[in-house]
Specification:
By secondary structure, this protein is α+β, with helices and mostly antiparallel strands. The chain is built from four helices and eleven strands; from the N terminus they run H-E-E-E-E-E-H-E-E-E-E-H-E-E-H. The strands form two sheets. Strands 1, 2, 3, 4, 5, 6, 7, 8 and 9 form a nine-stranded mixed sheet that branches. A two-stranded antiparallel sheet has the order 10-11. The longest helix has 14 residues. About 35% of the residues are buried.
Length: about 200
């Protein structure tokens, strides 16, 4: 079934993606952390999937499986590290979305990308925005995804909803962005990338 796109919001997003955004990292709010200049980051990509709903565009997110080595139980975009067989990072994002939530590649129109984000686990992640043009039934990859859910896009484009909190990590206080929604606690890298997108869309 084809979905009628929310044209005004898509136009806003595409104009926003033409603006320059600054690369971000998990350490943005912790300037005292000194990262080695010779560190090697592994390329990765995530898909930021937007789908039309009666109330407007929604963002599709996942809750990571509890058994994963990195970030178990956290809220994330579908995505992962770039494989040798991937033609580019767009291919990585689309492949991972197909594997993790059964999102058909031919149902996604790529809108663009925002600046890369460096994670504490040593990945350089490129967020790829995609418009899902046909409805689909999400199927979670059980080894990676515990749940698939949606958040109204307007909510995560409102910078006023973002908060800064902290936890102790390796004996030090580490600050990070959060943008909770309902029962879901969106924080860390996912919240930071969404904050970048919200900044680009700010009038």
């Amino acid at each position: 079934m084809s979905i009628i796109p929310t044209a005004n919001t898509l136009d806003t997003l595409q104009m926003a993606l033409q603006r320059n955004s600054v690369a971000s990292s998990d350490f943005d709010l912790n300037p005292e952390v000194k990262l080695p200049d010779d560190r090697v980051l592994r390329p990765a990509a995530v898909l930021v999937p937007l789908i039309d709903r009666p109330a407007g565009l929604s963002l599709i997110l996942t809750k990571r499986a509890s058994g994963l080595k990195h970030h178990p139980g956290q809220i994330a975009f579908p995505g992962g590290k770039q494989d040798q067989g991937d033609a580019d990072l767009v291919s990585t994002a689309l492949r991972e979305a197909m594997e993790e939530i059964a999102l058909p590649t031919n149902s996604v129109t790529i809108l663009g990308e925002i600046a890369q984000h460096e994670t504490v686990t040593g990945f350089q992640v490129t967020p790829i925005l995609g418009h899902v043009t046909r409805d689909f039934i999400p199927v979670s990859e059980p080894g990676e995804v515990a749940e698939v859910f949606e958040v109204p896009l307007d909510m995560v484009l409102d910078q006023r909803r973002f908060k800064i909190q902290y936890r102790y990590w390796r004996g030090q206080r580490r600050y990070y962005y959060t943008v909770p929604w309902g029962p879901y606690y969106i924080w860390g890298a996912t919240a930071r990338m969404l904050f970048t997108l919200a900044s680009l869309c700010k009038p």
